[in-house]
Amino acid sequence: MNPVSYLYLSALLFTIGGVGVLLRRNAIVVFMCVELMLNACNLAFVTFSRMHGNLDGQVFAFFTMVVAAAEVVVGLAIIVSVYRARHSASVDDASLLKL
Amino acid sequence: MENLIGLLVLVPLAGAGALLCGGRRLDRGGPWLGTLAAAVSFALGVVLFADMLGKGGEERTLDVTVFQWVPVGSFRADVGFHLDQLSMTFVLLITGVGSLIHLYSIGYMAHDERRRRFFGYLNLFLAAMLLLVLADNYLLLYVGWEGVGLASYLLIGFWQHKPSAATAAKKAFLVNRVGDMGMSIAIMLMFTTFGTFAFGPVLTAADRAGEGRLTAIALLLLLAACGKSAQVPLQSWLGDAMEGPTPVSALIHAATMVTAGVYLVTRSGAVFEGAPDAQTAVVTVGAVTLLFGAIVGCAKDDIKKALAGSTMSQIGYMILAAGLGPVGYVFAIMHLVTHGFFKAGLFLGAGSVMHGMNDEVDMRRYGGLRKYMPVTFVTFGLGYLAIIGFPGLSGFFSKDKIIEAAFAKGGTEGWILGGAALLGAAITAYYMTRVMIMTFFGEERWRPAPSPDEPSAEPAAGDRAGGMPHPHESPRTMTIPMIVLALGSVFAGGLFSVNDAFLKWLEPVTGHEEGNSPLGALTVTAATMAVLVLGVALAWAQYGRRPVPATAPPGSALTRAARRDLLQDDFNHVVLVRGGEHLTRSLVYLDHKLVDGVVNGTAASVGGLSGRMRRLQNGYVRSYAVSMFGGAAVLIAATLLMRAV
């Protein structure tokens, strides 16, 4: 199977994630879309690793996973505390930081 | 001898200090102390004069450096004195006439409560004037120059409770400041041109400096001289300065202050000779002023103001002579000295008349006073004959020479200047005869003293009872100075002219060359005599033959203008005051509209812009995310584009 197909898949997933981040209001969904974008990137990394025949991409994918795990911890904590404070998980409700 | 020069200035200065700081203890003896200081100064002057006469013509100059005043790098300003024949003449005139005026003031100011202070100011005036004529550099001269301005301010405004006196003092001070500004800029220019402002180096190096520079310096010096000597266009303060006590007017007009300008022009002769354009300006100023003052003098009914116009006119003669160069310097100074005698005498006489007439100054309310004040009449009369140039008296010798020198200028210019001087002589004869007739001859036109709510011109002198005046002769302290000055008015000119004594005395300092007048000396004298007779006859026809109306007739347009000092104040008001107002108003307008507009506009546009840009921060996370995506897309596109190129 042609590895380029994986790149198309990666781009498709990234676009779905990006659109989700921009369009959805629910913080949890936005968060999941961010994860989807990260994983789309991971897929691209791995594909490029395979195409170029070295392991750099795979190493990067692991880094991304670690960072994503840390980000999930912090991000979920923020979302939970925002929900507790404002009884809403909508990102548009948290719009106090403006003039 | 060297130490005496410093003392000459120091004695009146110490007198001023003692009188002004001494407090009430000196109230009784103050006037005599002040007079003593002036007299001691005069005695020192006489000693120095005797010493000077013992030496040859060229060795008579004494130079003393007292101390270094401002030594900064290459800039050196010393306090030093330079006594030569020119300054000696002034020293004797200032201290001599000054002492007589001090003596006169003892009687005149006898009833003034603040007379101690008055004498302190008089002494300060003498000290400043002596410093002015004795300084050996322009900077020290400037100190004396300003000192004279200060002392004149204090004295003109001596009766400061009268608003008119306070205003006159301020006016004199301000007009003088305009001239002083010229002086200070001239000194700065001198320093940049010559690297020094001592008389010696500046005057010897003057011919090596460029003519443009010299003209600038000379014109600024002329401006300074115009301010102090009340020449057109800075003449307006002199008439108002009559608000001061009469001895002050005598001092300002005869011995000090107004002579400073003539001194400056004569002393800086080398500068003016290197700048013919400036010399033309000087003679123009002189000629215009001598006519201006004379015309004003004709129309005034106030005896002091008539004499003030006369002073302006006579100083105009001196400035004219000084502007003629070496032909005229000696005669300018000679006329200055003789004028010092007769004008001081005339003013003291006027003061004596006012003293006897309840301080009335309007000549239309005088008349027939010769019977009541014989001494004043005779001394005033001799001063009168001297000023109109009656043959044999002082004014004849000095004025005649100036008219001759004016004609000797040559060409059209010579005829114009000579004609102006001749016309001035005619007008002088006219207005002085008018003063004489209105005051001492004719019927008695006395009026009761002005009502008490209208404060009288000079408080607390002589007969204060009100009602009809009782003219009486003044006390001896007042008549003696008048007699001495009358003697000077009669004989000084003759003494100076014997063997050209004055000419030989001053020649080593100022230089002299004989002018060759297109008219012979005798013709000029004959012409002067003719206009003299004409002026006297005209005045007699107008005021002697007919009774003098008690209220001034409306008169012609020229008379009305002359009564208002030839519209000098109106001119100043319209051109300078209004002009200044318009200038400041337009500047304020510009400031508000242009300068503030730029600043406010910048602020407003920055504020407006930020107001718009603030909308970008709407608090919605997703819109931030869009901009981040957009930004990232732009960055990537740019990177790809760069790589493709």
UniProtKB/TrEMBL annotation, chain A:
GO cellular component: NADH dehydrogenase complex; plasma membrane
Keyword field contains Transport: yes
UniProt keyword list: Cell membrane, Membrane, NAD, Oxidoreductase, Quinone, Translocase, Transmembrane, Transmembrane helix, Transport, Ubiquinone
Cell membrane recorded as keyword: yes
Broad class of enzyme this protein falls into: translocase
Transmembrane segments: 6-23, 28-48, 60-83
Localisation per UniProt entry: Cell membrane; Membrane
Main localisation: membrane
GO molecular function, a single term: NADH dehydrogenase (quinone) (non-electrogenic) activity
EC number, as in UniProt: 7.1.1.-
Domain of life assignment: Bacteria
Gene3D superfamilies assigned to the protein according to its UniProt record, in alphabetical order: 1.10.287.3510
GO biological process: ATP synthesis coupled electron transport
Membrane topology label: Multi-pass membrane protein
Catalyzed chemical reaction(s): a quinone + NADH + 5 H(+)(in) = a quinol + NAD(+) + 4 H(+)(out)
Main function: NDH-1 shuttles electrons from NADH, via FMN and iron-sulfur (Fe-S) centers, to quinones in the respiratory chain. The immediate electron acceptor for the enzyme in this species is believed to be a menaquinone. Couples the redox reaction to proton translocation (for every two electrons transferred, four hydrogen ions are translocated across the cytoplasmic membrane), and thus conserves the redox energy in a proton gradient.
Similarity remark: Belongs to the complex I subunit 4L family.
Oligomeric form and interacting partners: NDH-1 is composed of 14 different subunits. Subunits NuoA, H, J, K, L, M, N constitute the membrane sector of the complex.
Protein name: NADH-quinone oxidoreductase subunit K
Upper classification of the organism: Bacteria, Bacillati, Actinomycetota, Actinomycetes, Kitasatosporales
Gene: nuoK
From TrEMBL, chain B:
Record region (Disordered): 448-473
This protein's name: NADH:ubiquinone oxidoreductase subunit L
PANTHER family associated with the record: NADH-UBIQUINONE OXIDOREDUCTASE CHAIN 5 (PTHR42829)
Membrane topology: Multi-pass membrane protein
GO biological process, one term: ATP synthesis coupled electron transport
Protein localization: Endomembrane system; Membrane
Domain NADH:quinone oxidoreductase/Mrp antiporter transmembrane span(s) in chain numbering: 135-417
Superkingdom of the source species: Bacteria
Domain NADH-Ubiquinone oxidoreductase (complex I) chain 5 N-terminal: 69-119
GO cellular component: endomembrane system; membrane
Entry's Gene Ontology molecular function annotations: NADH dehydrogenase (ubiquinone) activity; NADH dehydrogenase activity
Keywords: Membrane, Transmembrane, Transmembrane helix, Ubiquinone
TM spans (from-to): 32-50, 87-106, 118-135, 181-202, 214-234, 246-266, 278-299, 372-394, 414-432, 478-498, 518-541, 621-642
